[in-house]
Amino acid sequence: MARKAFYSFHYVPDNWRAAKVRNIGVVEGNQPASDNDWETVTKGGKAVIEKWIDGQLNGKSVVIVLIGAETAGRMWIEYEIRKAWADGKGILGIRIHNIDDCNGKQCAKGKNPFSAFTIAGKDMSTIVKTYDPPYATSANVYGHIKDNMTDWIETAISIRGDYA
After folding, report:
1. Which of 130, 132, 153, 154 could join 95 via S-S bond, C-beta 3.0 to 4.6 A?
2. What is the C-alpha to C-alpha distance for residues 109 and 116, in angstroms, rounded to an integer?
3. 53 pairs with which residues across the strands?
4. What is the pTM of this model?
5. What is the DSSP pairing of strand 4-8 with strand 28-29?
6. Which DSSP letter does residue 92 get?
7. What CA–CA distances, in Å, run from 20 to 79, 85, 96, 163?
8. Phi, psi for 67 (deg, rounded to 5)
9. How far apart are CA 27 and CA 6, in angstroms?
10. Backbone dihedral region for residue 6 (phi beyond 0: left; psi -120 to 50: alpha; all else: beta)
11. Residue 154 and residue 12: Cα distance in Å, rounded?
12. The pLDDT value given to residue 142
C-alpha cells in the first residue's frame, strides 16, 4: 500500500536537513510551504494555522517528526503530534542532528518531543518509536534513513493500530 507522509520539523534550523530526508522518495510527502506561504498562514493567527496543518495532515498515513536540536517543545510540532494521534495516524521520530545543514554543520541531539505526551497512562516516548541512525557522518545517516524508512513507517502504523 502506498503511504503518504506528513513531515513535522522545526523550520528555521532544520529545513535543509528535512529537505534531504523528504527527498529520499520512499513515501509521498507533503509539499513544503514556501517562506511566503508560511508567512501568509501565520499572519492569519492560531485558527488559520491549525486549519492549514489539519489540511496538510488530511489523507496522510503517517507523521514523521524530524528531530533536531530544538524540535521538542515547539507549539506547532506538539499540535501536529496531538492531531496525528487523535486522527489515528502512525507517528515516528527520526533524529536528524547528524545530517549536515547547508553549511556542512551538524547540530546537537535534541530532546524527544514525544516525552511531552501521555497515552494510556504511559509516556508517549515509550510507545512511539524514535530512530537515531548510528552514524556520525551525514551520508551514512542519510543512507540509514533511506534503507529503513519504509519499515519504520509500517511499524509506526502497526503501533498506532494497537491503540485504536
Report:
1. 132
2. 17
3. none
4. 0.93
5. parallel
6. E
7. 24, 25, 10, 31
8. -100, 115
9. 10
10. beta
11. 29
12. 95
